[in-house]
Amino acid sequence: MKKTLCAVAIGATFMTPLLASAADVKVYGRAHVSLDYLNDGKDYKEVALSSNSSRLGFKADQKLANGMTAFAQIESQINFSSGSEDKESIDFSTRDTFVGLKGDFGQVKVGRFDSPFKAARGPINYFGDMVGDLRTITRAYNHRFDERNPNTIEYQSPTYQGFNVVGALSLHNSTMIYDDETKAPNKKSKSYDLGVNYKNGPLSVSSAYEYFQEKASRGERDGFRLAGSYKVTPELNLAGFYQYTSLDKDNLNGLSAKDKMRNADANVYGIGAEYKLTEKTSVRGQVFYRDVDADKMNSTLLAVGVEHKLDPAVRVYANLASMINDKNANLTPWNQARSNVPGSDQGVNALDQSPLALSLGLRYDF
């Protein structure tokens, strides 16, 4: 705990000059914990606490004399379910951390932050950072596209008639542009993103394409994503999603025959809905199907939940999620954005099973 407090103090020290000069500085965070029952459908059946992308951050915003605005953010993951021995509880800038300028031209920012491809799931992100998270089926095996890419330059256009365009270039995925093994210059580790978004009245649509070069982390691959939501009534919101991802064949070298099949080209598609029972209570549900270009490798994600807001900043919820695996698939509905992510090392084996997760959660945004 002393290490955690020390890190917070250091972060506050770095922000002190900004507090004196910036027009708007904000300290913010999220405490998000849940009590989970996880069952792999076979032998693993356990109850544990989880910290779900809990965070602490600083935002600075200052208007400049030329009419532009400078902005910056430092954000760190904080693990509320474990002690100071957990490194993620004391390391700063582990989440979206950047600096940029915005004005009539749009905005430019540089740093490490969510890619446009990752952000494009926004319209249907009903179970984000919880059991049943969409990423448990879209980010499967080596199909890793929901990334927070480092060394990134991003441009976002102004919004025109509901549309805006965002493009990003990650120059390389290491601290320096050198191959980790040979230490020689590595010029093929870039990633490229292009996204187009539309929001007008009850309709919201996001799309994105992402490409990683062959020397990038996890090798050459590309993907396309489309998500949209429509508010049918003030109470009912419907959403749909489609994603296609493909790995270069060189990515499959050295894998077993079964792992090669799991990492074949994949389509993910599905629907979700949220309905407000009252001003403070909502129910939600979703179903997604992962269709793999290989025999008996498909999976289906199902999730339902209810959420009640005790206050605009405080909510409690209960979620039930399951993953229905084909004979050769081995996915679970709990392995994203959470500290409680038991896997094969803990005895989890969801192969040809339907693992189940029940979660009771508390989230406080401050």
End-to-end C-alpha gap:
21 Å
- SS summary, helix count: 4
Strand proportion, as a percent range, falls in over 45%
Instruction: Please estimate the helix content.
Output: under 10%
Number of strands: 17
Shape: globular
Low-pLDDT segments, ≥5 res: 1-10
Largest sheet: 16 strands, antiparallel, barrel
As a whole number of angstroms, the C-alpha radius of gyration is 21 Å
Oligomer: single chain
Within the largest sheet, what's the order of strands? 1-3-4-5-6-7-8-9-10-11-12-13-14-15-16-17
SSE string, helix = H, strand = E? HEEEEEEHHEEEEEEHEEEEE
**Average predicted confidence as pLDDT:** 90
Structural class: mainly beta
Give the tags.
16-stranded antiparallel beta barrel, globular, mainly beta, 366 residues
Map the helices and strands.
Blueprint (H helix, E strand, L loop, with lengths): L1 H20 L2 E16 L5 E7 L3 E9 L5 E9 L19 E7 L2 E9 L1 H4 L15 H4 L9 E9 L6 E8 L20 E10 L2 E10 L8 E11 L4 E12 L9 H6 L3 E11 L4 E12 L6 E13 L2 E12 L30 E10 L1
